[in-house]
Every structure is written in structure tokens, then in C-alpha cells.
Please model this.
Amino acid sequence: MGCHVHVPQTAAVVLAVAERIRSDIEATARGAVRDADVMPITASFGLASLSGGACSLEALIDEADQALYSARQAGRNRVMLFESAAISLEPQVRSTDA
Model:
């Protein structure tokens, strides 16, 4: 599990950055494994913000973890922002609709 502290940005900007990273991993990671027949390599991200109500580092990490769990439950390979984990980006789609 990785943790990234991002300077204050709007949720849309942070979601777009995480989506770009997710997309790049999906597009390039498999090709980086040489001489092996591997399954597709993908990533899911859970994001949280202090503006979402977290009042401590522990609460912020817990919210990001909940968003990551929601991303995995929703089918993996996606980005979700904690706001009851309701805002998500699916691969190639910038919408909350599945």
C-alpha cells in the first residue's frame, strides 16, 4: 500500500491525476515483465481529503482505505474518492455510472 500526500487541489484534479497513473500502469506494466506470460496488471486507488471530514491522519488513512476497498469491491482497476466512496472513475470513463 502506498500513500501519497498531494498539495491542495480540487477533487476533480486529484481524481484525474490518479486516473492517469492508473491508466499508465494498465497500459505499460504488463510489457515491463520480460519473458513471461503474465495476466494483465492493473491498479486501484482510494483517495481521501481533509475536506471530506477527516480530522486526523489516522481518520484520513481510514477514509482512503475505505475508498480503496470500495474500488476493489466495484470490480478493481479504478479510482475512488472517499465521500461515502461515491465518486469514482472507471477505466476510460469519467463518470459515476457503471
